[in-house]
Specification:
single chain; 20% helix; alpha+beta; 94 residues; binds zinc ion; two-stranded antiparallel ribbon; 2 helices; 6 strands
Length: 94
């Protein structure tokens, strides 16, 4: 069972979350060429090991999170808000 420690709600079962995809993708500018958008949206690495993923806590605070997880073992190394401003505020209060 995968349990994710939401920084706002605490540790919850993964069934409360929705997987959003690879969290390391840098999306192109809105007016970038279609090929750049195609590559960003459809061409992904199938990482075997540690990767950063986006998850939304849909049955909790509804916040988007960056979860660093091992795809082989499901071990979670870190969870932080996807919004950089919120991450900075949380780090300042720790
Ligand atoms: Zn939450």
């Amino acid at each position: 069972m995968l349990r994710i420690a939401c920084p706002f709600c605490g540790t919850r079962d993964h069934s409360e979350f929705s997987y959003g995809g690879d969290g390391s993708v840098n999306y192109p500018a809105l007016d970038a060429a279609l090929e750049a958008w195609h590559d960003a949206v459809f061409l992904r690495d199938n990482i075997c090991g540690r990767q950063v993923e986006t998850w939304q806590h849909v049955h909790g605070c509804r916040m988007w999170l960056l979860v660093e997880r091992d795809t082989m073992t499901h071990e979670i190394f870190s969870v932080r808000p996807a919004h950089a401003g919120l991450a900075t505020v949380l780090e300042a209060t720790e």
